[in-house]
Amino acid sequence: xxxxxxxxxxxxxxxxxxxxxxxxxxxxxxxxxxxxxxxxxxxxxxxxxxxxxxxxxxxxxxxxxxxxxxxxxxxxxxxxxxxxxxxxxxxxxxxxxxxxxxxxxxxxxxxxxxxxxxxxxxxxxxxxxxxxxxxxxxxxxxxxxxxxxxxxxxxxxxxxxxxxxxxxxxxxxxxxxxxxxxxxxxxxxxxxxxxxxxxxxxxxxxxxxxxxxxxxxxxxxxxxxxxxxxxxxxxxxxxxxxxxxxxxxxxxxxxxxxxxxxxxxxxxxxxxxxxxxxxxxxxxxxxxxxxxxxxxxxxxxxxxxxxxxxxxxxxxxxxxxxxxxxxxxxxxxxxxxx
Length: 338
Ligand SMILES: NC(=O)c1ccc[n+]([C@@H]2O[C@H](COP(=O)([O-])OP(=O)(O)OC[C@H]3O[C@@H](n4cnc5c(N)ncnc54)[C@H](O)[C@@H]3O)[C@@H](O)[C@H]2O)c1
Known about the structure:
Helix content is 31%, strand content 30%. By secondary structure, the protein is an alpha/beta fold. It has two domains: 4-122 and 289-309, Rossmann fold (3-Layer(aba) Sandwich), CATH 3.40.50; 125-287 and 319-335, Dihydrodipicolinate Reductase, domain 2 (2-Layer Sandwich). It has a nine-stranded mixed β-sheet. Helix 4 runs antiparallel to helix 8 (310-327). It is globular. The protein binds nicotinamide-adenine-dinucleotide (NAD). Nicotinamide-adenine-dinucleotide is lined by residues 9-15, 34-37, 40, 57, 71-74, 76, 94-95, 121, 123.
């Protein structure tokens, strides 16, 4: 099979990581990079002299490409992805897929009609530690899942046109949906805009899942510490995924508590706590973004739906839409219509 000819749109902070991977993977040929800013394009030409560059992304449509990769600001994802699909290109678009579920549905329908792959850059679904955590849950090692707690905190990077929830929570929402293989029934969100008026830079999102499972996400651009953590508490064990750790990404705590049958007799009413071993599984770690880029190419070749399909991207957008409604409505719990 010939190499898949790829065009890249957007080469700001994140785009160069995608460019590097599509240059490295033997099955792809990165033909052209588009960005509105000439200095970004000059940088790409210095690193990759064989790659064509343009300030007008529609020039990609004259290059006999197979696929387009989009890493532009989220407000531009819908029009750019739509134009790419209309020109018969498979599309990998960064998260969040769009800023409205109506736009996400439109892209999914268009991709289906044209028989094209539509994939969203939910990178954490290609992270070996997240996959290992899912295995733990699916094998029943943690027992019945009671609740999940996710935190993604740091100082910056501030955005002036999108709040912290739309910027960072797509990562945690995609992880939680993947781990639980369930969709939430309702969501609520509280937050604050401290640095810029009107743009929330800290938010707390709560989701209620079927089977009484609760999930909580704390996201912030205004925190002294860098935190990337997901905790899963189950009836048998508890596990913590710490993505900041270089090697020991998951710790499984054999900790728990058993409550006795209710008794009026105080002497008999003793909780039994278990403080067992901590296990650190050996996880073979690769670059999740490389796995993601390779998966995009494989799905194009095999005509398969990606793990982070347009539908997965739509589910994330629907949750964010309801969470945004709650954020603007003093944290009111919003039911989600699926
Ligand atoms: N998967 C991840 O872990 C991850 C991490 C960071 C960012 N992202 C996502 O990547 C996307 C880009 O984020 P970023 O931080 O790189 O933003 P950025 O602002 O640094 O870069 C965006 C680039 O797109 C260019 N651009 C804007 N409109 C364009 C157009 N019409 N045609 C061509 N170029 C255009 C801008 O000139 C800029 O260079 C966002 O969707 C963001 O959520 C994903």
